[in-house]
Amino acid sequence: MISASDLRAGMTFVQDGKLIKVLEASHHKPGKGNTVMRMKLRDVRSGATYDTTFRPEEKFEKAHIDTKTVQYLYTMDDTAFFMDLETYDQYEIPVSTVEEEMKYILENMEVKIQFFGDEVIGIQLPTTVILTVEETQPSIKGATVTGSGKPATMETGLVVNVPDFVEAGESLEINTAEGTYVKRANK
C-alpha cells in the first residue's frame, strides 16, 4: 500500500478495480483547513483523464508494472504490432491507447512495453529519439539559435518548434517527455 502523499508523476496504482496512472501530483495547503494532494490522473484502460484531490493519509494499492524491450514492426488498420526480441512473441496494441507515443516511434525502433499482469497497458519511450524533418519553412539567412523558431513536421507527423536555421531533411534529436527540439543529430 502507498499513501497519497507518496504518489508521484509516472506512478501507477489500483483504485476501485481501475488501473490509474499519476500524470501530475502536488501538495496544496489552503488558507484554512488541511493539506490535500491535488492529482491529475489517467485511467489506463479507458484513457480518460481527470483532476481530483486526496487526503495525504489515504492509502492505495501500488500496481506492479513489468516492462519488456520490444521492436515496433508496423501499424495495420488501427493496431500497432510489436515483437519481443528474445522470444519473438508479437503484441498487438490498439493505436488509440498509444496515439501520443506513436508520434515518436519509427519502424524497427526498440521501445519498452508496460504490462500489468498479462495485460499490455502502454509504451515507455526512450528519453530522446532521432527524427527527420519532413517539412518546414525555408531557413532564414543569418538566423541564430535564439530566434523565436518555426514549426517543423517530422517524419512521424509530430510537429515541433525548431530554430530558424533548421531545414527539411535534417535529423533532429527530440525530447519525448516534452515533445521539444533538443539539437541536431549526428547521423
TrEMBL record:
Residues 67-121 form the Translation elongation factor P/YeiP central domain. CDD domains: S1_EF-P_repeat_1, S1_EF-P_repeat_2. Its main location: cytoplasm. Residues 129-184 form the Elongation factor P C-terminal domain. It comes from the Bacteria. It is found in: Cytoplasm. Pathway: Protein biosynthesis; polypeptide chain elongation. It holds the Pfam family Elong-fact-P_C. The keyword Amino-acid biosynthesis does not apply. PROSITE patterns: EFP. Keywords: Cytoplasm, Elongation factor, Protein biosynthesis. SMART domains: EFP, Elong-fact-P_C. InterPro entries: Elong-fact-P_C, NA-bd_OB-fold, Rib_uL2_dom2, Transl_elong_fac_P/YeiP, Transl_elong_KOW-like, Transl_elong_P/YeiP_cen, Transl_elong_P/YeiP_CS, Transl_elongation_fac_P. NCBIfam families: efp (TIGR00038), PRK00529.1 (NF001810). Belongs to the elongation factor P family. Involved in peptide bond synthesis. Stimulates efficient translation and peptide-bond synthesis on native or reconstituted 70S ribosomes in vitro. Probably functions indirectly by altering the affinity of the ribosome for aminoacyl-tRNA, thus increasing their reactivity as acceptors for peptidyl transferase. This is Elongation factor P. The gene is efp.
